[in-house]
Amino acid sequence: MAGAAGQKRDYYEVLGVQKNVSAQDLKSAFRKVALQYHPDRNPGNHEAEEKFKEASEAYEVLSDPDRRTKYDRFGHAGNPFGDAGGGFQGVNINDIFGEIFGDIFGGGGGRGRQRQSRGADLRYNLEISFEEAAFGCRPKVTIPRPKKCETCSGSGSKSGAAPRQCAACGGSGELRYSQGFFAVSRPCGDCGGSGATIPDPCAKCRGSGKTPSEEVIEVAIPGGVDNGTRVRLGGMGEPGDRGAPAGDLYVTVIVREHPLFQREEYEVFCEVPVSFTQAALGAKIDVPTLDGKVKMTIPAGTQSGKVFRLRGKGIPHLHSQQRGDQHVRVIIETPTELSSKQRELLERFAEVSGEETHPQSKTFFDKVKELFG
To answer: Is there a contact between 247 and 120 (Cβ–Cβ < 8 Å)?
Structure first.
């Protein structure tokens, strides 16, 4: 890219866009070109470096509304690069590309320091019963959670003096290094990226403002949670450095299996055994539910596998007054040991009943006759 304005390529041509391009499309076009010609991807390629430099200059002008207006009216003469008013030399690469590439070029700027000073989020796996998940509970859990240092009141300073601006980075939290025609940044090692140092650190917490501790916390688990549900407790995570905001505590719910019930969303399923006489003659049986036993009517002639619905006996909806249903699948038990009297009666029953009293068997043998004649 030549230094004279008349020898420069049109900025829109450099980025491959039209003059009416939107700000978002302009950003996308620049990202594409910059990634293609970035020096890290083209080591030792002088042509790629020049094209990267050219695209960076074009984007810096066109992304600024005032400079873009001047460029549209006067061309390169309206935006003299390389003089006292502009120039690419010494420009921090993170200032230009930070919003587009994030940390890809070692940037992140002030946002990275804010993330570093805020306390870390904590995670805790909480195991609860099937019933507790359905109706909610308030268990107490012990969390290994650092607390504010009592000796220095969380300041990190032995004397209580305020932190001083880091001399190494000038308070920016980062150190800049020149690489070719642009500069890259790295977190400052002296202050850990915070931009400040403690001249007389507290002996107890060593300047962090925190000491190891455990805390008993009551966790409100709402009714209707399922396995894997996360409950967030804002500000209950690890305290931040030197009085910065604390992180959050995320409690992940693990629901123990139930010996009788299975769950699908807010519906509950279970199987209930009945005798073949109850199924044949009909009966009222006790069925377990989350609310205790209830009476359920089995009509005469019930077949094994028949499913009955108990409305409103399922899982309460999360943060709602609604509730799912319970589905009861009837399993007919066949006796394995018969007395001589029972066997005699069953044989007489089979003799007088024949196939006509077994509709499913009759249907099956009818199908066999149709297929095989």
So the answer is: yes
Residue 59: give the domain boundaries: 5-88
Report if residue 339 sits inside a domain: no
pLDDT one-digit tens code per residue, 81-136: 544 333 343 344 444 555 455 444 444 444 434 334 677 888 889 999 999 999 99
- Which has the closest alpha carbon to 145: 249, 251, 298? 249
**SS3 track for 185-242:** EEECCCCCCCCEECCCECCCCCCCCEECCCEEEECCECCCCCCCCEEEECCCCCCCHH
What value does the mean pLDDT take over residues 154-181? 72
pTM: 0.52
358 within some domain: yes
The residue count of the chain comes to: 373
Which candidate, 169, 167, 180, places its Cα nearest to that of 105? 180
Q: Is the same domain home to 82 and 17?
A: yes
Co-location of 312 and 349 in the same domain = no
In this structure, the answer to whether residues 294 and 276 fall within a common structural domain is yes
Strand-strand pairing, 267-275 and 326-333:
parallel
Q: State pLDDT tens for residues 211-243.
A: 888 889 899 999 999 988 899 998 888 877 666
321 found inside a domain: yes
- Look up residue 345 and give its amino acid: L
Give the CATH number for residue 226.
2.60.260.20
pLDDT of residue 174: 76
Amino acid, single-letter form, for residue 45: N
